[in-house]
């Protein structure tokens, strides 16, 4: 293992929850304490309102069937929000169903009508996105969360994917490959369907004209800036431990420091949105 990998692993290790017993305990805690408010809290990145079972499901430490039955028991116990949790399990299983029956989803546009869309595959803009240096605060926070914890909140995943494929006009394969490289809960089926949903090329995908505005998303889901403060050191005087840990987790050759000047936006949001819509209309 390289020195960079060892250093990164020591940071991520603080946040992982592995093993069958740990997974069962995590599920029980979620059902008992969190699922009743799941609809309200699951989209707030700073709040631990989700089950965080994705890493355990990825490694087979708990089964979707066990989670499914726990969800239904919660519904019968009066916790109606558990129905939304069950829908997320169904979404995950749908990804595997589609991967089995239409295996091209993991490497090609599921909808072939998108094959000629003018996405870029590389360029100077890709590295800043990977580094969490786009200057778009919620995108930056989400990318840095991934390096520190090995995970990324689902709301963050949608926003960074939309920003890459639409504002930055970059092919979803770039994001798919990078998530595979970095996430400890990486799952081939869910990863592929999630990216193609965000890009517009997948089954039941978000309409291409639905372009997340990261700033309005931040105002809605991180109004008090707690999530951004947790993971972005350069913007805050009192730097959180996780924000500093990012600089310990990343490769040394990125040569980044918590004393760096926060970067300007890599693309103005209105400009990126307009270019994406123009490309869509000219297909």
Concise synopsis of the structure shown:
The chain is built from 15 helices and no strands.
What does this 3D model show about the protein?
With 283 residues, the protein is an all-alpha fold. It has 2 domains: 3-105, Serine Threonine Protein Phosphatase 5, Tetratricopeptide repeat (Alpha Horseshoe), CATH 1.25.40.80; 126-281, DNA Cyclobutane Dipyrimidine Photolyase, subunit A, domain 3. The mean pLDDT is 95. Helix 8 crosses helix 14 (241-249). The radius of gyration is 19 Å and the shape is globular. 56% of the residues lie in helices and 0% in strands.
Predict the CATH topology of the largest domain.
DNA Cyclobutane Dipyrimidine Photolyase, subunit A, domain 3
Derived structural class: mainly alpha
**Number of helices, where a helix is a run of at least 4 consecutive DSSP H or I residues:** 15
Instruction: Flag low-confidence runs.
Output: none
Shape: globular
Distance between the termini: 46 Å
In CATH's first tier, which class of the largest domain applies? Mainly Alpha
Helix content: 55-70%
Largest pleated sheet = none
